[in-house]
Amino acid sequence: MSGLFFPDPSFWSSLGLQLINGWAGASSLFLVAAGLSLIFGVTRIVNLAHGSWFMLGLYTAYSLSGQLTAWATAWGWGAALAPGFGFWFGMGVTAWVMAGLGALVEVTLLRRLYGAPELLQLLATFALVLIIKDAVLWYWGPEDLLGPRAPGLSQSIEWWGGRVPTYNLFLLALGLAVLVALELLLHRTPWGSRVRAATQDRAMLSALGQNPAGLFTSVFALGSGLAGLAGALQLPLEPAHLELGMSTLTAAFVVVVVGGLGSIRGAYAAALLLGLARSLCIWLGTQTLFGFSVSFSKMTLVIEFLVMAAVLIARPWGLLGRPPASVATLPSIHTPTGSSGATASSGRARPLLWSLAGLFLIGLPLWVAPDAYFWVMAIDVLIATLFALGLSWLMGTAGMDSFGHAAYFGMGAYATALLSLSGQVPPWGVLFSGPLLAAGLAWVFGALCVRLSGVYLAMLSLALAQVVWGIAFEWDGLTGGSNGLNGVSLPPWLQARPHFYLLALTLAVLASAGLWRLRLAPFGLTLRASRDAPVRAEALGISVTQVRWLAWTLAGSLAGLAGSLFAWAKGGVSPEVLSLHQSLDGLVMVLLGGLGSQTGPGWGALVFTELQDELARRTDYWHAALGLVLLGLVLALPQGLAGSVQAWRRWRQATLPKAQA
């Protein structure tokens, strides 16, 4: 640390250069986040496809710049003017194309879902992510594409002993210009007044006779255009690749939540804060603190999530957001399918049907060959069912939405892998150490999360999970880093796949039955009261925070149990089990099956896992095929598979007496 306390002459120069670069990067991130904040504020849709517009904008700008440059050269513009025309005009066209595509998606798809529960809208936009990603793969291919340098801004200037790229200064100025333009648009125009009114009270806007349809389309077009423009601006800075969409979306969500929902100024402040923090970590590099070597540069993966967690804990509504009393937060599907409890029909539960289903599942090893591929899929489905069970119970019965449930799944998987490789713990100890450690992690994270609600709770859970992912990704000595841990062997008595299947089946059945009984027990009734009427529950002497905390811990332990089985089944583990994709897969399974349904997690896990496997074996573009299937299910079965069956049964029971009469 001597360099920090006794800087040499280049100290301030290098620091200033890094901060300017961080500010320039923050400007591009601000464009994406501002569009996301506008869309969410007006439409109340958590648009997971927003990062895809950024990715698509970068690819589109790459193609347009090359094509327009070729046309300009053919028209005789010369080598001096053609590249500039192709680059800058292509960038403007890209923004308009993305705005048009965003409006088209809003009109043709999302407008049909405004009356649907918010998490189903999330599922629809996740399907769009899959479709857009494979469309890009089909048209542009899997290779990374690096665009040209910005004509006219490809040089750098001297700055205090260093050199600053002029393009970075351009981005810095453009970010400020867009901030001013958006503020004027929102506060000095009739359209902006309608947008602010819709953000604060959409129902009142409709009551005053304002048709929100056109407003929603224009906001979606503006937000998509800003994301596309931000992607085009990255053309000289980084290659276009297929993972840009989700990584950019995650960063944009962090900015929106840290800045405050609906606040454009807050989005700029948060983007600047995160950009400077990331640059500062790069500048610090590796330092010695109190005798320990600390690599700050490795913290760039998690610094934004650490900042978000700190801000949400201290100020849950963000830096410049409004307090919860006046801020519209994300509602959840807290009226689960079949939420009426133990009705007469559910009490009888068709015991014969359940018994036959149980005998069928238990008897499968008698007529399926031990080496059949069927067992691989059956085990995967049961592990996914365990993962979805806890999340479904958390979201349905407890009324809390988690975007970071993979943290507990990954904790269980890594704990099992590490203990198995150590050879010092017996198999049963290895298996149940995973859920215990996952419960401990959920207990710690739950203490921070359960005091929040809506999108703030969901994003804090995501932030904490991403911190765990970053630690696993960087801690090579313990977790194996990006390569993960391999060579995990099963105990001899579980090496036969049918035996492992029976273990997973037993655990899944016990977990499902236990959660269902717990839901009808006093704790479950108290939890549902805390979900439906927290203020009244507190008045009755119920500690809402404590009840929610226990529910969060229980759900985390089930995810850890699923992770333990996963590490054994796959023979290893990698940081992917802690990623946002893993958490989103859990959400998709819950919503596919039907939130709050006893059998919903099983049906959702079965359909999602089978679809992935079948489509991946039949086409290279299986993500798009899966996305189309998910869209169809959202539009046709908005209550999920099990929920739709239960709704049909209730309709049949209601109409049958009338028909008999």
Summarize the structure.
It contains 27 helices and six strands. 71% of the residues lie in helices and 3% in strands.
- As a percent range, the share of helical residues equals over 70%
Instruction: Look at the helices and sheets and give the structural class.
Output: mainly alpha
- Backbone shape: globular
The count of domains is 2
How would you describe this protein?
There is one protein chain. The chain is mainly alpha-helical and 661 residues long. It has 2 domains: 16-314, no CATH class; 357-653, ABC transporter involved in vitamin B12 uptake, BtuC, CATH 1.10.3470. The protein is 71% helix and 3% strand. The protein is built from 27 helices and 6 strands. A two-stranded antiparallel ribbon has the order 1-2. The protein has a two-stranded antiparallel ribbon with strand order 3-4. β3 and β4 form a beta hairpin. α4 runs antiparallel to α9, α10 (244-259) packs across α11 (264-284) and α20 crosses α21 (522-532).
Outline the secondary-structure elements.
Layout: H1 2-5, H2 11-43, H3 50-74, H4 78-108, H5 118-140, E1 156-159, E2 162-165, H6 166-187, H7 190-200, H8 202-207, H9 212-233, H10 244-259, H11 264-284, E3 286-289, E4 292-295, H12 303-314, H13 344-348, H14 351-367, H15 374-396, H16 406-422, H17 427-449, H18 454-474, H19 476-479, E5 485-486, H20 497-520, H21 522-532, H22 534-539, H23 544-570, E6 572-573, H24 580-593, H25 600-618, H26 622-636, H27 641-660
Helix pairs in contact: 2-6, 2-7, 2-9, 2-10, 2-11, 3-4, 3-5, 3-9, 3-10, 4-9, 5-24, 5-26, 6-7, 10-11, 10-12, 12-18, 14-20, 15-20, 15-23, 15-24, 15-25, 16-17, 16-18, 16-23, 17-23, 20-21, 21-23, 24-25, 25-26
